[in-house]
Amino acid sequence: MGKQKSTSASLSLFGDSSPELTAPTPKRRNRKAIGLPPGLPLDKYEKDEEGRLREIVGAWVRDKHAILQNYVGIASAVRNKWVARGPAGTTYIDLFSGPGRVRIKDTDDVLFGSPLLAWTYSQQRSAAFTNIYVADAHPSLVEDCRVRLEAEAAPVEFETGRAVDTVDRIIGRLNKYSYHFAFLDPFSLGALSFGVIQKLAKLQHIDILIHVSVQDLNRNLRKYINKEGASLDIFAPGWRDSVDINRSDQHVRAKIFEYWGNLLKTIGLPVAEATELISGEKNQPLYWLAFAARNKLAHAFWDKIRRVQPDVQKQLISG
Ligand SMILES: C[S@@+](CC[C@H](N)C(=O)[O-])C[C@H]1O[C@@H](n2cnc3c(N)ncnc32)[C@H](O)[C@@H]1O
Questions:
Q1: Which of 69, 183, 187, 215 to mutate for ligand 1's pocket (most ligand atoms within 8 Å of CB)?
Q2: What digits encode the pLDDT tens for the residues 169-183?
Q3: Whose CA is nearest to atom 8 of ligand 1?
Q4: Protein residue whose Cα sits closest to atom 9 of ligand 1
Q5: CATH architecture under which domain 56-318 falls
């Protein structure tokens, strides 16, 4: 993994100020001074020494990226076979790309973001993706991601906008005979529209790694239940007819996830039974990484690279 140390620029709000102005200096970050574009939260983004954006993330990002990297690695031989077979090639699709760099909060550890990781690791394994498609709702993030991928000589194409819109534009450019791998990594359930997965599932050869925000589900379950047509209905349309909302929160959450898994099966894309739970520093559940594919070998790969044992995982999901 391309790990770099940042030389975290110290940004003085006052410049070379007189002694009476310097003490005590409040440690507040200032959007203008940092040059952070509107729409990006001050506590989640910063600029690096080259003036490009990077996301500030929790240490758990290492788990998420390790799983992504493992899957890119284990599928190398299949990608090479595909490329040897004909011109269709192999694609990596990242509809929630971010800027391509992250820094772990309260540390100087700077890591690749998901598209950079997928691309560089596929190269390292001598099974480089032949096409990389990235998109993000925020134009500055996708722009910095594109620049970084191009600097690594990636065959990148990009789109800006919400995944529900970019998915059509990107699918329109794909070679339908390619072997596709998509990573869907939104912050919230509402951004993970089932329609996006449904459209990707129409591609014959596709494996999808999906971030499902447990934190969002835990924090907002009752709010979402009370708001018809909002996040949960976008994530798992029709769930209201199948889940008894009068049961405990834990039960309702498990049933919604089960319903979502079954919904994926109906579009021909089974979700692997064992799903990785990524937890935060205080062991609080943050999200599941779910794996969906129709190919048996892909599921066998997933079984090899995921780390939680199926029995433990069942407990985590059903409470
Ligand atoms: C968790 S971050 C992605 C991190 C990146 N995958 C990585 O591992 O480096 C989620 C990204 O989704 C973007 N986003 C939020 N809502 C979106 C939507 N509806 N469609 C597309 N992108 C969205 C955000 O701007 C943010 O960059």
A1: 187
A2: 999 999 999 999 999
A3: 114
A4: 113
A5: 3-Layer(aba) Sandwich (3.40)
Please list every protein residue whose CB sits less than 6 Å from any atom of ligand 1: 95-98, 102, 113-114, 136-138, 141, 162-163, 185-187, 191
Q: Is there a cis peptide before residue 24, judged by omega within 30 degrees of 0? A: yes
In order of 30, 71, 81, 160, 273, the CA distances from 93 in angstroms are 34, 14, 19, 13, 23
> Tokens in use for 212?
């499902």
List the chain domain ranges: 56-318
Calculate how far, in angstroms, residue 187's C-alpha sits from the geometric centre of ligand 1.
Answer: 6
Cβ neighbours for 249, distance < 8 A, ≥ 6 positions apart: 218, 221, 222
- Which residue's CA lies nearest to atom 10 of ligand 1? 186
Q: What is the pLDDT of residues 169-226, one digit of tens each?
A: 999 999 999 999 999 999 999 999 999 999 999 999 999 999 999 989 999 999 999 9
233, HSE (Cβ side, Cα atoms, 13 Å)? 10
Which atom of ligand 1 is closest in space to residue 136's alpha carbon?
22
Q: Is this model's pTM higher than 0.70 or not?
A: yes
